[in-house]
Amino acid sequence: MTERDDLKGVNERMRALLARTTHGRDDFEDLVIVPLFAVVVALICGALIMLATAVDLPTIGRSFVALAVGSVGSLSAWSETLTSAIPLVLAGLGLGLGFRAGLFNIGAEGQLLMGGLAAVMAGFALEGLPMVIHLPLTLLIGASVGAAYAAIAGILKATTGAHEVISTIMLNLISFELLNWLLRQPWVQREGRSDPISKSVPDTAALPKLLDFIDPNLRLHAGLFVMLVAVFIVWWLLFRSKLGFAFRASGENPSAANYAGMRAPLIIVLAMATAGALAGLAGANQITGVLGRASPGFSAGIGFDAIAVALLGRSHPVGILFAGILFGGLEAGGRQMQVDAGVSIDLISIIQALIIVFIAAPLLVRAIFPWGFRRPRNGKKGGAA
Amino acid sequence: MDVELRGITKRFGSVVANDNVNLTIRGGEVLGLLGENGAGKSTLMNMLSGLYAPDEGEILIDGKQVAFDGPSDGIEAGIGMVHQHFMLVPVFTVAENVVLGVEPTGQLGSIDMKRARRQVAEINEKYGLHVPPDALIEDLPVGIQQRVEILKVLFRSADVLILDEPTAVLTPQEVREFFGIVSMLKEAGKAIVFITHKLHEILEISDRVSVLRQGRITGEGDPKSLTEADLAEMMVGRPVSFTVDKTVADPGRPMIEMDKVTMLDETGEKVLDRVSMSVRAGEVVGVAGVQGNGQTELVEALSGIEKIASGKIIFDGEDISHATVRERHSLGMAHIPEDRHKSGMVESFTIAENMVLNNYYAPEYSKGWAIDWQKVAETAARFCIDFDVRTPSVFLPGRSLSGGNQQKMVVARELERETKLVIASQPTRGVDVGSIEYIHERLIASRDEGDGVLIVSSELDEIMGLSDRIYVMYDGRIVAEFDNTGGKADRNTIGLAMAGAHEGEGAAA
Predict the structure, then answer these.
(1) Percentages (nearest 5) of helix, strand, coil residues in chain A
(2) A-chain residues within 8 Å CB-CB of B344?
């Protein structure tokens, strides 16, 4: 059959087949326009909710100004936004990776707590080590403990089929109580305190502040680089490595992955562990970069917000980075809003939730903003039918 | 009721799905609509049923122009479509499914099930459908479920019935009965559009035939004056060969041997019962049988997808009874799975990714722990050329390919490497005529290079045409073996064995 194709023809066909397809407009709409509009609609809905709760118009105006100023309006705003974004992005990367592998891990909160707790212990227990060893080791221990904790859910699923949503929720509850108990143990609890609070992490295990030469109040820390490196590593893992290929295949079509010789139990455990490592790293970052010690509920719901971040970022590392910064900004701006306009910070949670609702319903967003999208019928833009 | 489509054109983006199509459908007549996958049959019928609006052209019902705005308008106008994939609620009864959405209501808006059952029974009687109105859908065989779909359409007083690939899911026996129903409907004056890519069915049942290729009508005529070869040429655009050219096999050493292999399902029932069989190098062995008699499990046991309970599997002298899928694969076993969508490919992955789905870890595609995607893409492009997979680029998702091209992609992945044994399960299911011919050629080529080839197919014609030797499976056992050198096996004897007539005795080998 191929004899009559001369070599030139074959080369030409090869070139055509290998030409990179540009990303279609559909991808662009799906990845950029829908999230963008979702955020806009959520903010508008937030304003309507304020109206409905009898907040007057000038106050609403003031709160949105405060939201903008508090998130991106100054160096200190940026510092706060990024500081809040770091753990969200790290945990979000883990969750996104899990989603890609077909695992709906709800347990980032617990994994983050365990990772943070391990980091605190490694911090004060290994006091005396030089920083170049102590800090990386502390982060590594945090990540490892997060990985091990998530692997429990992975092993349960791989061996018994226990659904990860249920088991990770249960593991979250266990981690909360474990934390409370440990914080009252004499070898963890700070000397001279009766409330549950841990000893402090020494400076050799603390992530250095990046901007304290400008103003000692700027909290941004070197976890920023940990986050950026993690974004790259997760991208590489998912889209370049052999393991990531198996993760994605198992997530998209478990049966085909099985037929292709990939081993589902192994992949489930590895994907859960990787996700847990990232969540644990998020906890360790928060401890060594911001908090310096552990207290009950120090995770502050980051592990749950990270689910939203992973969804908004479409489980893509770069998308998660931007989504995490957006959510960090909402949080930082929300605090400012509370101070300046006296609007409850709960409104920020509502806006975050609305963003997710609109992301999950792209058709709704398309219906609200028809001009942002290509006409589905015949591809002609503009012009009346 | 007569329906006329005039100059219908439909575009999706830059793709022209239908190009100036003219079609007439008359009451009391079966119109066969023939075409390869992706030729535009479904698009055309979706416009007729109101799901899509045409970009150009008009639809006339009894001479009057109509414009549908959604499928409910189509139903209103008396046009009903029976889809290939059933849309039934499994835990509802037949009557409940039929009236769903158009329930006859009594006082206070309660559903008048008594009336519903009576109406269903009337239609049942009138067209000889023989569907028990109170049976649960999940308890009914596929053939009867299909009749429930027809009942649904008739209940909504359709005069034009569009049947989309209705025979794809039916056994030969069910196809007979189905044709009987189609004749009844025809006599009752209904207009029927019968969509298929099976040529002999068109010749058997339709009064007129229209052939679509690449969105255009490429042939029309009276089936009585047409042959399968004529139809195939209209469909593909070139003459198609139905017989597979092959020389007499020259079998060598045994490539795979199964020795008294037993396999159990989750409930502990035997799905394979002491099966012993072999495939030698350089021969094609076919496994015939009515679906559900252990063929799927045989393939799962051979390829390592499922564990066997007892017995032995020897692959080219090596015991692989408990080897993993990947170990068997690296020893040179190729496996074309029976359901490409479910197990053969990942639809959202690019063609390049799909081409290495089970081989991505091989050293030639590796850069350390990473995959060398440039290398993969080049290899995939070469595979696409070698196996005539038609796509503009290897970076498009697998789902963008037509069924035939998807199958060629899977076949390319499995055959484009050093193999010793090729297991092809339903290698041409849902594949167009042109691709079938091509896939058959490649399988025979594998045989001629000295591979053992095992073919499992529900199409007896395919088994008869390709195999040098044929096993028949019945109830989890191999009940007969036939020598098919030069096509000498007897079709009727095989058919009897498939029905279980040869229980316990091996036929002449």
Answers:
(1) 70, 0, 25
(2) 256, 259
